[in-house]
Amino acid sequence: MDKVTEGMHKRLNDQPVVQKWLPEMKPETIADGIYENMPFEVYQSIDAWNSSRIKDLVDSKGNSTAGDFYAKHIHKVFSVRLKEIEDQAHFVVGRKIHERTLFGAWDCRTDPEVFNNKNQKGRDAFRNVEMCAASLLARPTFQNYLSGAYREVVIVVTCPITGLRLKAMIDILDSDLQNVIDIKSTANMADLVADVEWKSTFTKYGYPMQQAHYLQVVNIACGEPLFGAVRKMVFAAVEKGKNYSVKFIERDYDKRQNDHDLYIKTLKELALRLKENNWFDTSTII
């Protein structure tokens, strides 16, 4: 066996194992790894940086006070920040669309204040979950993404740049651990896919940094893509409450590379501040 072939075999044999989450795996002690079937509440409780915290750094642009910056970005354990979500019901419906689409079942009784069948708003929320999931599942492209893939996996890694732990909950990760699919529900598809960046809700909601974070976390956990392939992330977006249209959004290579460069620059800035214990000069925050 020549060295190139031997190297390929070794690379294939070194693929990480996706393990089942078990109740004894506590969020405060969970090891780095890739986990299936981890409850969302457990994922929330893992003290690690998700894409929203990285986005906070990118968006701060030197406007944070030292105390606020340190408290917000270093010691705050991430939780779902409903105050930053325009509508709590919107968040709940989004989660239920994920459950219905990925696992075929969901329980409206867990959120009776949202899915209240006594008023029109509650009935509309129920219909949105069912119709959005049905519209996604009716698309052959989406079915191809689902086929043989891991669904809603959690990845926890240690960042080699900062030494901090990073985490991501990925809707769909293909069986080769190569590519990522993320489900998005939107009230306005036209705004989500707008070509002009400042008009686009894709940019407003920080999806470019989410993509950079997810791909970086997968790269750390799984290694570089096999055989020179380019690892990519596709957003499967469905429009709520209208015609339930579906778009598969893939950011072009140049934009994706720029997002990655900004993400890595942000991590390096954070690493420097950790090293120097410098939280008072905010002028150099990315």
What average pLDDT do the residues reach? 84
CATH class of the largest domain: Alpha Beta
Give the strand order, joined by hyphens, for the main sheet. 1-2-3-4-5-6-7
Tell me the CATH architecture of the largest domain: Alpha-Beta Complex
What does this structure look like?
With 286 residues, this protein is of the alpha/beta class. The protein folds into two domains: 205 residues, Lambda Exonuclease, Chain A (Alpha-Beta Complex), CATH 3.90.320; 53 residues, no CATH class. It has eleven helices and seven strands. A hairpin with a 6-residue loop joins strand 6 and strand 7. The C terminus is likely disordered.
Task: Please provide a brief summary of the model.
The protein has 286 residues and is α/β, with parallel strands linked by helices. It is built from eleven helices and seven strands. It has a seven-stranded mixed β-sheet, sandwiched between helices.
Task: Name its key features.
alpha/beta, disordered C terminus, 286 residues
